[in-house]
Write a structure and sequence with these properties.
The chain is an all-alpha fold. Helices cover 84% and strands 0% of the residues. It contains two helices and no strands.
Length: 180
Amino acid sequence: MKNITDSFLCLGSWPSAGSFVFNTDILATNPINLSVVLGILVFFGKGVLRDLLDNRKQKIWRTIRNSEELQENAIEQLEKAQARLRKVETEADLFRVNGYSEIKREKLNLINSIYTTLEQLENYKNEAIDFEQQRVINQVRQRVLQQALQGALGTLNSSLNNELHLRTVSANIGMFGMMK
């Protein structure tokens, strides 16, 4: 094992005075070199590192603030959308209720109109039946009258002789002459 003096860079009045020697033992000099480099980095790099961390911190805070603002805007828009949805649902319910009542009203109007039309058709049917009955009655009357007249003419023609015929004609002419 080496002396403790072998592991340091020898400067000044050490036993081998006047000599300047580098220690080439890596295992012994590495922790020292690392501590020196880290010390220099900390001394000179702490400002840069602090600036980088401050910048990063500010970006994070800005991002958080922007996210919170976006969240608030989204919440406001959601509330507005929910309010519009409630309004539209209320209007839809109103239209639905009005639509159902309008449908019922139209249904009743249609039923009433159909009943009115049926009554009119019933009246037309009854009038047509009455008209046909009157027509048939008139036809029967005409036939009965015609048959009665034919029967009377037949009876008159068979029972009328020349003498009776001449008296009837003379009487009618006499009545006609008196009327003048």
